[in-house]
Amino acid sequence: MKNWLTALSRLLVIIILFDGCKSAEKSLKKGxxxxxxxxxxxxxxxxPTHSSSIEVLKQAYPLALExxxxxxxxxxxxxxxYKWEPQLDTYVKLNKLFTSISQxxxxxxxxxxxxxxxxxxxxxxxxxxxxxxEATGLLKIGDRENARKAYxxxxxxxxxxxxxxxxxxxxxxxxxIASFKVVVEQVLVTSKRYQLSNEYFQERVNEYLQTNKxxxxxxxxxxxxxxxELKLQPDHIITLxxxxxxxxxxxxxxxxxxxxxxxxxxxxEKLVGRSKIPVYGKVTAKFTQSRKTIxxxxxxxxxxxxxxxxxxxxxxxFNGEYNWMCEWAHFNGDERALTAAQVRKCKSQELLPPDPQxxxxxxxKPIYERLTSKLQAYxxxx
Length: 382
Known about the structure:
Elements: H1 2-30, H2 33-46, H3 51-76, H4 84-102, H5 105-108, H6 117-141, H7 144-160, H8 167-178, E1 180-184, H9 195-211, E2 219-222, H10 224-230, E3 236-260, E4 265-272, E5 275-281, E6 284-306, E7 312-333, H11 340-346, H12 356-379
Parallel strand pairs: 1-2, 1-3
Antiparallel strand pairs: 3-6, 4-5, 6-7
């Protein structure tokens, strides 16, 4: 058994090596020299004398090197101000090949990898510097549109070379100028009785806006207290108010019907001679079922006002409702006149409805969904 498992393990290794070599050869034929180098180097790490991989590496690395150096020359001759970035990408690829080969003793006997670490550092610094200068110039213009372009450039600087100069401060400054600022006022409700439920609705709205501060990358939502602390001059003010709502309107419906059993059932006995004979007949019952419905509904008004002009730029109303229902029944007469479902209903009892606070919360849930969906769609264009 042990010998069989050992033989199987060796066979699997051979299959994997063979498949790896075939893949390296396929990449070479397709002109994907980097992939061919990486695959053959990987095989030679585990099988240093693998002849096919040696041959593939011997051919693929010089071709990969030549291809990348040609790409660098082409980028250097470009008129594009961001030409350092394609050069950087190419040096990164070259150094990946260098690392893969240099970490494989068998590979270094086949080819001599070239290190472009210094060239990569220079390209990275120059690429970041070009973006930084371009962004700084755009930021100096001072308007929102150019600040957004500046922010995008500073973001790329941070990706290319994190903490380059004072890029994080510049990112914050650019975003401050670029962002469209919206203050969302507290939701107004006219009844003190439902203040607690209103706070729940308010908290959900706040949580949504805080979690999704950048529904559009450059739209920022603020709570009133936050805006006051920052002495913010917003672009928009959103006012939310429950125009109308009803909570706990009760509707009770009753329906009584006289039932007769579908089939004849035993209703008694009679004496025939000395024997008792069952008597069959249809039975009746008076069945009354009740339904209590608690209606709750509300209408939320949303106004978006331009802070500078004080003009209402958008106004919509969102409705929501929630109906709580309870059903029960009772009967007088013979239970056998009832169906199985009617018997089960008679075992139900009248339940107490949720308290008004909970009913307020329930009808406000669809309003919340419609409101947040509208805000997301509306501010996508900003």
